Amino acid sequence: MEERDTTIQIADAGGQVPTADPDNAFAREQSDLRRAAHPSSAQIGSVLPDAALLAADGTSTSIAAARDGGPAVVVLYRGAWCPYCNTALRKYRNELAPALRERGTKLIAVSPQHPDGSLTMQEKHDLDFPVLSDPGNQIARALGVLTRPAEYAHDLEAEHGLDLTAVNADGTIELPMPTVAIIDAAGVLRWIDVHPDYTTRTEPAAVLRAVEELSL
């Protein structure tokens, strides 16, 4: 687990984010998440399970297939509906993907949403890396970073028209905590950074530093 500061605060998500009103359920949820203990139970040196995933076109794939025998940086995000995820993946497209490509390391984004949500994310931001769906949150579960919205936040999401049971491929409201994991060519977990507070994400420079230090 990375001990240095790896965090970027997603301060501007295109005006789509609820304001940080103390009475706002989302602000309350973020505050609760920031106070929570670090959740990941992932063991560095363990093999990341090669779960059955879906590509943005709906075809079957996996992390192993997407990384094509090489190392990879795997980004777990919540979904195309999340403005913070949109901002983060745009930043990774611009600041992370090109540098990783030069090093022969794949960038792979994974969420629990249906493949059409993955396709929306990929096309909306012109993402030039795989954007995959993980029905059942298999990878998040294996990494110990699976969560669900607080009941008060889930109720407010519903009021705003977000039905996670329709968005998620498995019909649940479970979500991954925003996470970046680095796996080597053998599929072994070498580094992980988890953000229980979904308004923050891993800084691209921290990922590149880790890849370089790991000699991947």
How is this structure best described in words?
The protein is of the alpha+beta class and 216 residues long. It is built from 9 helices and 11 strands. The strands form 4 sheets. Strands 6-5-4-9-10 form a 5-stranded mixed sheet. It has a two-stranded antiparallel sheet with strand order 1-11. β5 (106-111), α5 and β6 (131-133) form a beta-alpha-beta unit. Residues 1-6 and 11-22 have low confidence and may be disordered. It catalyses: a hydroperoxide + [thioredoxin]-dithiol = an alcohol + [thioredoxin]-disulfide + H2O. Residues 42-216 form the Thioredoxin domain. Belongs to the peroxiredoxin family. BCP/PrxQ subfamily. It is an enzyme of class 1 (oxidoreductase).
Please summarize what this structure is.
This protein is globular. With 216 residues, the chain is an alpha+beta fold. It has a 5-stranded mixed beta sheet. Strands 1-11 form a two-stranded antiparallel sheet.
Layout of helices and strands, plus pairs?
Elements: E1 7-9, H1 25-35, E2 53-54, E3 60-61, H2 63-67, E4 72-76, H3 83-95, H4 97-102, E5 106-111, H5 115-124, E6 131-133, H6 138-143, E7 146-147, H7 151-159, H8 164-167, E8 175-176, E9 179-183, E10 189-194, E11 200-202, H9 204-213
